[in-house]
Amino acid sequence: EFVIVNGEFIERSEVKIDMEDRGYQFGDGVYEVIRVYNGKMFTANEHLNRLIESGKKIKMDISYTVEEMKEMLNKLIQKNNLDLGTIYMQITRGTAPRNHVFPGDHVLPTFVANTKEAARPIENMKSGVKTILNEDIRWLLCDIKSLNLLGNLMAKQKAVEAGCFEAIQHRNGTVTEGSLSNVLIVKDGKVITHPADNLVLNGITRQKVLEICRNNGMSYEETTFTLDDLNAADEVFISGTTTEVTPVIEIEGNKVGDGTPGPITKKLQELFEKEIEKECGN
Ligand code: PLP
Hints:
By secondary structure, the protein is α+β, with helices and mostly antiparallel strands. The protein has two domains: about 1-115, D-amino Acid Aminotransferase, Chain A, domain 1, CATH 3.30.470.10; about 120-280, Alpha-Beta Barrel (D-amino Acid Aminotransferase, Chain A, domain 2). The protein contains eight helices and 15 strands. Strands 7, 8, 9, 10, 11, 12, 13, 14 and 15 form a nine-stranded mixed sheet that branches. A six-stranded antiparallel sheet has the order 2-1-6-5-3-4. A hairpin with a 2-residue loop joins strand 3 (about 30-35) and strand 4. Helix 2 (about 45-55) crosses helix 3 (about 65-80). It is globular. The mean pLDDT is about 100. Belongs to the class-IV pyridoxal-phosphate-dependent aminotransferase family. This is D-alanine aminotransferase. Homodimer. It catalyses: D-alanine + 2-oxoglutarate = D-glutamate + pyruvate.
């Protein structure tokens, strides 16, 4: 299995990352996960642009261009013979003696990437998933895809311990997002999701779903909604790179609608599938 470390392709067992890498000690870095279908990356430009933007927001310059990163990642896919799976990549602020202060430009970022085989979440997409509600206790820069994921991990862990797939988070009664997904509701035929501000990650899948709505005459709105709106929704679904479009059929033990995936969610799943085929073939 090959991985990328700072532009070099090496065997995973050969990787040496210093224990004072700032990603390891501080979570001082940003990351992306890109889906691979048929050996091709899906929405790679969007993910890599967001990586560069996340870097800017923490004052970290990513020296690679989108094209350079795409070339490297495609080569990694080939070397590892990846057909269906994910690419994980992260960039940290590099290795320097532990100090809260940024180390300065002489310290180069550490870029790593690896691939993983992963099936599509067919069963969840078909049957839907159960969720819990959880207070969103994370920081106020959730638009940055930062390595600091403890808040997300604790939310996800709580969900799994309750026998659920995802935790729907809320701040003072306003629904924000999941632990690893965006949350969208359908009310009277309209798709509604939290605006892409500092309180949520502007998911690439979320953006794709809204683009699909736009191009297919389906009504949608990016606006905040409350827990009451969530509980009164006709349909609820989550979106994410690994979760794709997954129906939510239960929240805190209460059924969403009749407890089965709704028609608009199913239509969006179909149209999303077409987008995958368009970009990656079938
Ligand atoms: N929100 C959070 C907190 C996430 O970790 C993710 C990542 O998967 C998403 C939303 C969905 O983003 P994307 O569709 O870009 O994968």
